[in-house]
């Protein structure tokens, strides 16, 4: 190969003689190649977005169970609605399913107002072979739950559950926010009826799911919740939203709240209330919410018995108290007990028989359990 140097000031670049490329041409080729690599990297990154992976997963099956956690709340139901919308767009046939029951007046209103078809299950056999978990990452609450190998998991709670597609983001305030991110990534239309679209019912459900899990955008929020709400705003049905947000309250819930207000204990800035037996288990977290309004109280735990189980619900407005970790510490060593949650909100369950001493431990009295809760909130664990 022959080379020629032209040293004149107006013509510095090296050139190849004959049919070889000049240096400027080589530079242009390099720029094009780098651009192509950049485009390929962008395409590959977009292809790996959880929304696109989930849609491809739906496209590989015929029938799929969209499984919510036991006793689903608005965030779980809204997330299931969104997952079903993506599934149908991928030509899969979804069914929305859950274990347990829907009792809380807010949850019942959400289901009724949005006219949701939800299927209650009791065993693994009630599910399709392919299962997508929304708003939880480990199946529970039904016989054979340990045998579920999820097709996908979409959740915002801490945990180790995985699926063939896994998107678990504990820093996000609501699972519904993740699905709004999915719709944006998939170029969905808001309020339209063609292609992948977000209907007014779905938009309303997603917004209320976000509101319910963040106490109306005041607790545990990230930027995703505000961005998602703004994105959904054009399609929201305000009448439906108002009907969901303001349901009538059963008298036993009001009585339980009154009992909590009159009978809680306070140590420093922390409050604990033992409700003993409660007729409506959904009144326990509502009582916890009520006590957070007491002046001078920054963290609250309420617990009560229902059908042989002690249900625990905690709330924290105190940066020193990570409620999920505090509840885990309080139930440590008690057989058949589980607890956890986020910094601002947590919950747990204990077997009443094991709390009373059946099995391998001596149990724990209700007074001792209350003191455990105070100690855990104080960080002494």
Automatic annotation (TrEMBL):
Keywords: Hydrolase, Membrane, Transmembrane, Transmembrane helix
Gene3D superfamilies on file: inorganic pyrophosphatase (n-terminal core) (3.90.1640.10)
Gene Ontology molecular function: any one: 3'(2'),5'-bisphosphate nucleotidase activity
EC number: 3.1.3.7
Source species, domain of life: Archaea
Occurrences of domain DDH (ranges): 64-210
InterPro entries named among the record's database cross-references: DDH_dom, DHH_sf, DHHA1_dom, Oligoribo/pAp-PDE_c-di-AMP_PDE
Regions that span the bilayer: 23-44
Occurrences of domain DHHA1 (ranges): 268-353
Protein name from the UniProt record: Bifunctional oligoribonuclease/PAP phosphatase NrnA
Species for this entry: Halorubellus litoreus
């Amino acid at each position: 190969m022959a080379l020629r140097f032209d040293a004149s000031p107006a013509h510095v670049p090296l050139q190849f003689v004959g049919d070889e490329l000049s240096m400027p041409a080589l530079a242009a080729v390099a720029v094009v190649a780098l651009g192509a690599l950049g485009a390929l990297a962008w395409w590959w990154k977009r292809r790996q977005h959880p929304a696109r992976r989930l849609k491809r997963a739906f496209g590989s099956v015929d029938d799929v169970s969209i499984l919510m956690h036991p006793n689903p709340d608005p965030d779980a139901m809204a997330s299931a609605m969104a997952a079903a919308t993506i599934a149908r767009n991928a030509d899969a046939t979804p069914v929305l399913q859950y274990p347990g029951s829907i009792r809380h007046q807010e949850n019942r209103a959400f289901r009724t107002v949005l006219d949701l078809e939800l299927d209650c299950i009791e065993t693994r056999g009630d599910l399709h072979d392919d299962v997508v978990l929304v708003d939880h990452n480990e199946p529970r609450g039904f016989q054979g739950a340990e045998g579920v190998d999820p097709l996908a998991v979409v959740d915002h709670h801490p945990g180790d559950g995985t699926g063939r597609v896994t998107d678990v983001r504990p820093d996000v305030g609501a699972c519904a926010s993740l699905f709004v991110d999915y719709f944006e990534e998939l170029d969905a239309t808001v309020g339209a009826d063609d292609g992948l679209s977000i209907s007014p019912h779905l938009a309303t459900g997603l917004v209320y799911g976000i509101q319910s899990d963040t106490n109306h955008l005041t607790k545990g929020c990230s930027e995703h919740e505000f961005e998602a709400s703004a994105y959904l705003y054009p399609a929201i049905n305000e009448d439906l939203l108002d009907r969901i947000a303001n349901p009538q309250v059963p008298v036993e819930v009001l009585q339980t709240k009154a009992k909590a207000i009159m009978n809680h204990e306070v140590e420093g800035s922390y409050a604990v209330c033992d409700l003993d037996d409660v007729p409506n288990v959904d009144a326990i977290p509502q009582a916890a919410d009520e006590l957070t309004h007491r002046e001078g109280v920054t963290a609250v735990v309420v617990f009560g018995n229902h059908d042989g189980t002690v249900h625990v619900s905690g709330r924290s407005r105190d940066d020193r108290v990570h409620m999920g970790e505090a509840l885990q510490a309080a139930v440590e060593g008690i057989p058949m007990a589980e607890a956890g949650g986020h910094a601002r909100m947590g919950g747990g369950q204990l077997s009443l028989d094991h709390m009373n001493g059946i099995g391998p431990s001596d149990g724990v009295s209700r007074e001792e359990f209350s003191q455990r809760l105070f100690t855990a909130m104080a960080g002494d664990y």
